[in-house]
């Protein structure tokens, strides 16, 4: 696949990047270089290779997902302009 100047201009427009007309040939060349690298990667035989997320096998750290109240009500309400009975007090907005 080869990128022409019209396609390079369209990609720049879709990416919301302003590219001057004299810079389009260089941009199209860069796109073609990138596509060449992708074609090289497509030639690699990956049959039987398991997908991986890291080069070293490791398990993600997990924590217990327990629901608590946080025990921080006083800290949360400390900077509130008006707090009553453990809640934020706000002016009435609906009549």
Radius of gyration computed on alpha carbons: 28 Å
The chain-level structural class is mainly alpha
Run of helices and strands: HHHEE
Largest sheet: 2 strands, antiparallel
- Total strand segments: 2
Strand order, sheet with most strands: 1-2
Percentage of residues assigned to helices: 25-40%
- CA distance, first residue to last residue: 65 Å
GO molecular function: asparaginyl-tRNA synthase (glutamine-hydrolyzing) activity; ATP binding; glutaminyl-tRNA synthase (glutamine-hydrolyzing) activity; transferase activity
Catalytic activity: L-aspartyl-tRNA(Asn) + L-glutamine + ATP + H2O = L-asparaginyl-tRNA(Asn) + L-glutamate + ADP + phosphate + 2 H(+); L-glutamyl-tRNA(Gln) + L-glutamine + ATP + H2O = L-glutaminyl-tRNA(Gln) + L-glutamate + ADP + phosphate + H(+)
Keywords: ATP-binding, Ligase, Nucleotide-binding, Protein biosynthesis, Transferase
Subunit structure: Heterotrimer of A, B and C subunits.
């Amino acid at each position: 696949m080869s990128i022409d100047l019209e396609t390079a201009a369209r990609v720049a427009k879709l990416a919301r990047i302003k590219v001057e007309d004299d810079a389009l040939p260089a941009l199209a060349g860069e796109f073609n270089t990138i596509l060449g690298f992708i074609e090289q990667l497509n030639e690699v035989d990956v049959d039987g290779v398991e997908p991986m997320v890291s080069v070293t096998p490791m398990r993600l750290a997990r924590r217990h997902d327990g629901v608590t109240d946080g025990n921080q009500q006083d800290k949360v309400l400390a900077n509130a302009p008006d707090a009553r009975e453990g809640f934020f007090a706000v002016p009435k907005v609906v009549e």
